[in-house]
UniProtKB/TrEMBL annotation:
GO terms for biological process: action potential; non-motile cilium assembly; protein homooligomerization. Heterotetramer with KCNB1 or KCNB2. Residues 25-126 form the Potassium channel tetramerisation-type BTB domain. The chain crosses the membrane at residues 183-204, 248-270, 324-341, 385-406. This is Voltage-gated potassium channel regulatory subunit KCNF1. Belongs to the potassium channel family. F (TC 1.A.1.2) subfamily. Kv5.1/KCNF1 sub-subfamily. Keywords: Cell membrane, Ion channel, Ion transport, Membrane, Potassium, Potassium channel, Potassium transport, Transmembrane, Transmembrane helix, Transport, Voltage-gated channel. InterPro entries: Ion_trans_dom (IPR005821), K_chnl_volt-dep_Kv (IPR003968), K_chnl_volt-dep_Kv5/Kv9 (IPR003971), KCNF1-like_BTB_POZ (IPR048010), SKP1/BTB/POZ_sf (IPR011333), T1-type_BTB (IPR003131), VG_K_chnl (IPR028325), Volt_channel_dom_sf (IPR027359). Residues 437-446 have a biased composition (Gly residues). The gene is KCNF1. The lineage of its organism: Eukaryota, Metazoa, Chordata, Craniata, Vertebrata. Its main location: membrane.
């Protein structure tokens, strides 16, 4: 159909009274020819396609404000837009909503919807979530690029103290910025390991010494190593705090709170040891010091600062709270049910180990988690059958949420790698564009488009959408076809 039938468009500038719902609008979007009808487009008069109905009355200025080109002979509007996205956009006229096909960039599809003046409220919820995810990824890439640019750029208008502050922050927070920064990061990592090993070795009786009162205490050498490590951690934290651009955000960050918890017990213990004896009994001071020494295990979490894998694991667990909650709920229900059954079934045995239901909770926990210490076990036949069912249910309950948690871990890890690669590519493109701009070269010629492959054939739609709705029909125009096969038939388009 060529669009020049009985209800075709009038001449530009004419005041034809037949312009209305029965008019045919012929559009050519990226080589795909589509015939639409006025009664269909009038459902959403604020869209660009609906404005084509009355644009001819305004002349060629109005026409070219809506489309890229217009053929008066065929009375056909040309748009240099994505035909695949257009097929999705026109669904709003038929169904009142838009679905985005797989393989289309969500950001580009949003731009297409903005061009055709179709509001995003018509986009389906599943597609909106995909669009929001891609938008967040672009914002993350932009943030990383900006951070890299801030590190590379030097503002000469800033004072000496501000420049020194930036250098210290970059030196301590970005190991990849220079070789000395990488050496400091490795040194900090090794000191964390050394302090953790020293904390463990200090509890070995053979390595402990007796003090003046006969109590076992850590070896003085281990204490000196511990003091040196704490001194390094303290210096590192203070330098990072003073050089931080936002000190409040720095102090409230989770990893920085871990750093404080790893450092603070040493100074509190030191204070209690030298000053606490004057205010309280020596026994209470020693108990308080021992309790604070246990808090030194928090320094092992400092390794997460230097390990992207641990950070990814933390994020995966954070995103898997729902699955972890389901796991705990399954286990809680199973523990209560099987402990009550085990207590009831074991009451008939004279040497039963199930004294009460709360005491049976311990047996149910170690059975459902397949640990089985053997301190509590059933002795009756029904009790053993209950135990077999309980550990089978425990295996199933634990295995069910594991797959989503692993998927979250893999998805986030791969996403971080993609974002890092995208940020590097963005910087390379910026550097390339700045270089070509300096040399006065254009980005590319239009002739390069001749080497692109032809567009994919547009498939024909099936039966009519409804008995009262007119069909729109389309042909695919492929420039590389020969003259004999310049237009495809309906059967070829369907194939």
């Amino acid at each position: 159909m060529d669009g020049t039938g009985e209800h075709s468009l009038p001449e530009p500038g004419s005041q034809d009274s037949r312009v209305g719902d029965d008019i045919e609008i012929v559009v050519n979007v990226g080589g795909v020819r589509q015939v639409l009808y006025g009664d269909l487009l009038s459902r959403y008069p604020e869209t660009r396609l609906a404005e084509l109905i009355h644009c001819l009355a305004g002349g060629y200025d109005t026409i070219f404000s809506l489309c890229d080109d217009y053929d008066p002979g065929k009375r056909e509007f040309y748009f240099d837009r994505d035909p695949d996205a257009f097929k999705c956009v026109i669904e709003v006229y038929y169904f009142g909503e838009v679905h985005m096909k797989k393989g289309i960039c969500p950001i580009c599809f949003k731009n297409e919807m903005d061009f055709w003046k179709v509001d995003l409220k018509f986009l389906d919820d599943c597609c909106k979530s995909h669009l929001s995810e891609k938008r967040e990824e672009l914002e993350e890439i932009a943030r990383r690029v900006q951070l890299i640019l801030d590190d590379l750029g030097v503002d000469t208008a800033e004072g000496r103290w501000r420049r020194c502050q930036k250098c210290v922050w970059k030196f301590l927070e970005k190991p990849e910025s220079s070789c000395p920064a990488r050496v400091v990061a490795v040194l900090s990592f090794l000191l964390i390991l050394v302090s953790s090993v020293v904390m463990c070795m200090g509890t070995i009786p053979e390595l402990q010494v007796l003090d003046a009162e006969g109590n076992r205490v850590e070896h003085p050498t281990l204490e000196n190593v511990e003091t040196a490590c704490i001194g390094w951690f303290t210096l590192e934290y203070l330098l990072r705090l003073f050089s931080s651009p936002n000190k409040l955000h720095f102090a409230l960050s989770f990893m920085n709170i871990v750093d404080v918890l790893a450092i603070l017990p040493f100074y509190v213990s030191l204070t209690l040891t030298h000053l606490g004896a004057r205010m309280m009994e020596l026994t209470n001071v020693q108990q308080a010091v021992q309790a604070l020494r246990i808090m030194r295990i928090a320094r092992i979490f400092k390794l997460a600062r230097h390990s992207s894998g641990l950070q990814t694991l933390t994020y995966a667990l954070k995103r898997s709270f729902k699955e972890l909650g389901l796991l705990l709920m399954y286990l809680a229900v199973g523990i209560f049910v099987f402990s009550a059954l085990g207590y009831t079934m074991e009451q008939s045995h004279p040497e039963t180990l199930f004294k009460s239901i709360p005491q049976s909770f311990w047996w149910a926990i170690i059975t459902m988690t397949t640990v089985g210490y053997g301190d509590i076990y059933p002795k009756t036949t029904l009790g053993k059958l209950n135990a077999a069912i309980s550990f089978l249910c425990g295996v199933i309950a634990i295995a069910l949420p594991i797959h989503p948690i692993i998927n979250n871990f893999v998805r986030y890890y791969n996403k971080q790698r993609v974002l890092e690669t995208a940020a590097r590519h963005e910087l390379e493109l910026m550097e390339l564009n700045s270089g070509t701009a300096g040399e006065g070269k254009a980005g590319g010629s239009r002739g390069d488009l001749d080497h692109l492959p032809p567009p994919e054939p547009a498939g024909k739609e099936g039966p009519s959408w409804s008995s009262r709705l007119k069909l729109s029909h389309s042909d695919t125009f492929i420039p590389l076809l020969t003259e004999e096969k310049h237009h495809r038939t309906r059967l070829q388009s369907c194939k």
